[in-house]
Amino acid sequence: MTWMGSWRERAGRIILDPHDPDGVPIDTPRDRRWLWRIEATLTTGATTDQQRLLARDLREYLRETCEHHWRPYSGDEHVSAHAQCLWCNQVRWLDSEL
Predict the structure, then answer these.
(1) pLDDT lower than 70: segments of the chain
(2) Fewest C-beta atoms under 10 Å: which of 1, 52, 80, 81?
Protein backbone atom coordinates (compact mmCIF):
# COMPACT_ATOMS: atom_id res chain seq x y z
CA MET A 1 0.00 0.00 0.00
CA THR A 2 1.27 3.42 -0.85
CA TRP A 3 0.91 6.33 1.55
CA MET A 4 1.45 8.90 -1.17
CA GLY A 5 -1.36 11.00 -2.59
CA SER A 6 -4.62 12.09 -1.03
CA TRP A 7 -7.39 10.16 0.68
CA ARG A 8 -9.46 10.61 -2.48
CA GLU A 9 -6.90 8.58 -4.44
CA ARG A 10 -7.08 5.75 -1.89
CA ALA A 11 -10.78 5.91 -1.01
CA GLY A 12 -12.16 3.76 -3.79
CA ARG A 13 -15.32 4.01 -5.86
CA ILE A 14 -17.61 2.76 -3.09
CA ILE A 15 -16.92 5.96 -1.15
CA LEU A 16 -16.65 8.53 -3.92
CA ASP A 17 -18.95 7.34 -6.70
CA PRO A 18 -22.40 8.96 -6.57
CA HIS A 19 -23.88 5.86 -8.29
CA ASP A 20 -23.99 2.16 -7.48
CA PRO A 21 -22.63 -0.45 -9.92
CA ASP A 22 -26.00 -0.40 -11.72
CA GLY A 23 -25.87 3.37 -12.26
CA VAL A 24 -28.53 4.15 -9.61
CA PRO A 25 -27.79 7.24 -7.49
CA ILE A 26 -26.67 6.46 -3.92
CA ASP A 27 -28.15 8.67 -1.19
CA THR A 28 -25.90 7.27 1.57
CA PRO A 29 -23.66 10.03 2.96
CA ARG A 30 -19.91 9.74 2.42
CA ASP A 31 -19.15 9.53 6.15
CA ARG A 32 -21.43 6.51 6.42
CA ARG A 33 -19.65 4.88 3.47
CA TRP A 34 -16.32 5.44 5.22
CA LEU A 35 -17.64 3.60 8.28
CA TRP A 36 -18.55 0.60 6.11
CA ARG A 37 -15.06 0.64 4.60
CA ILE A 38 -13.42 0.84 8.03
CA GLU A 39 -15.58 -2.06 9.22
CA ALA A 40 -14.53 -4.18 6.24
CA THR A 41 -10.86 -3.35 6.74
CA LEU A 42 -11.03 -4.17 10.46
CA THR A 43 -12.94 -7.39 9.82
CA THR A 44 -10.32 -8.69 7.39
CA GLY A 45 -7.20 -7.15 8.91
CA ALA A 46 -7.60 -6.96 12.69
CA THR A 47 -4.58 -8.43 14.47
CA THR A 48 -5.48 -7.88 18.13
CA ASP A 49 -8.48 -8.81 20.26
CA GLN A 50 -9.18 -5.11 20.76
CA GLN A 51 -9.33 -4.52 16.99
CA ARG A 52 -11.54 -7.60 16.48
CA LEU A 53 -13.92 -6.37 19.19
CA LEU A 54 -14.01 -2.92 17.59
CA ALA A 55 -14.79 -4.53 14.21
CA ARG A 56 -17.61 -6.58 15.76
CA ASP A 57 -19.09 -3.57 17.55
CA LEU A 58 -18.89 -1.38 14.45
CA ARG A 59 -20.48 -4.12 12.29
CA GLU A 60 -23.32 -4.55 14.81
CA TYR A 61 -23.92 -0.79 14.96
CA LEU A 62 -23.88 -0.38 11.18
CA ARG A 63 -26.27 -3.27 10.63
CA GLU A 64 -28.70 -1.99 13.27
CA THR A 65 -28.70 1.49 11.75
CA CYS A 66 -28.19 0.65 8.07
CA GLU A 67 -29.62 3.08 5.53
CA HIS A 68 -30.33 0.36 2.99
CA HIS A 69 -29.50 0.83 -0.65
CA TRP A 70 -31.30 -2.02 -2.40
CA ARG A 71 -29.93 -3.59 -5.58
CA PRO A 72 -32.44 -5.82 -7.40
CA TYR A 73 -31.44 -9.17 -8.87
CA SER A 74 -33.63 -11.14 -11.24
CA GLY A 75 -34.23 -14.73 -10.32
CA ASP A 76 -32.94 -17.80 -12.11
CA GLU A 77 -33.30 -21.55 -11.73
CA HIS A 78 -31.35 -21.47 -8.43
CA VAL A 79 -32.70 -18.44 -6.59
CA SER A 80 -35.85 -16.32 -6.67
CA ALA A 81 -35.81 -12.65 -7.58
CA HIS A 82 -34.52 -10.59 -4.68
CA ALA A 83 -32.88 -7.33 -3.67
CA GLN A 84 -29.71 -7.06 -1.61
CA CYS A 85 -28.45 -4.09 0.37
CA LEU A 86 -25.19 -2.70 -1.02
CA TRP A 87 -23.96 -2.01 2.53
CA CYS A 88 -25.10 -4.68 4.99
CA ASN A 89 -25.90 -7.41 2.40
CA GLN A 90 -29.36 -8.02 3.86
CA VAL A 91 -31.60 -9.82 1.36
CA ARG A 92 -35.26 -9.09 0.69
CA TRP A 93 -37.26 -11.36 -1.58
CA LEU A 94 -39.05 -9.29 -4.20
CA ASP A 95 -42.40 -10.82 -3.34
CA SER A 96 -42.15 -8.76 -0.11
CA GLU A 97 -42.18 -4.97 0.04
CA LEU A 98 -38.85 -3.14 -0.22
Answers:
(1) 1-2, 96-98
(2) 1
